[in-house]
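Sample entry (254 residues):
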Amino acid sequence: MAEPRISIIIPVLNEAGMIQAQLDSLQPLREHAELILVDGGSRDGTLEQVGGRVDHVLRSEPGRATQMNLGAMHASTPRLLFLHLDTRLEWKALQALLIRWPDSSCIWGRYDVNIFGSHPMLRVVACMMNLRSRLTGIATGDQAIFVCRELFAEAGGFPEQPLMEDIEISRRLGARQRPLCLRTRVTTSGRRWQEKGVWRTIWLMWSLRFAYWRGVSAEALALRYGYRPAVQHPSGQGSRHMSGRVSGDSSEHG
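Predicted structure, serialized as tokens:
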């Protein structure tokens, strides 16, 4: 098996219902990428569904930023890509990135996004997300943020906060260099828009971003968004590495 050129880090929490299909969609990428799954304490059998579909399984304290930082620590390549489980990254999208990312360069950026769903406004939402991101240099997690390890370390990794970690790291990275905004698209699920209502979700997200821009803390915004601090693992232990890099079909998981 060839050495991977990029590390794809996937934070998850209680995703047993969709994890097999989503990880199956990533299998064609494994010739060039290592897949690192970081579980935040799932209690629905998520890890039992993983099988040999990833190269590393890590267990972390809950929190997307915490999980992604742990994954970055254990990545074996200088290229990091952070992928939400409900965002689909196809081979042509990864190939477009690797073509634009020579071994000697240190960059960061994101993809344009499509939003999968039946509501006709989702296409408009996606277009607005892509345009806003291109104009402001701010990327969101749905757009599959990628960054070289050196630049990620300089920015201090993802800030340990319950919301807006993607906005904050974009600010920090953007202060160092402009992002590469790939027009090749990834596809993300429209489930949160459809479950909560498209217009309501748009209003909520823009309200949260405006409040964050005005200086309201991420913790206060998380409570407004409906977030409640997750319970730590019963063992009381911190983040743990559950497996080493493996090849082929074998992978250990908790």
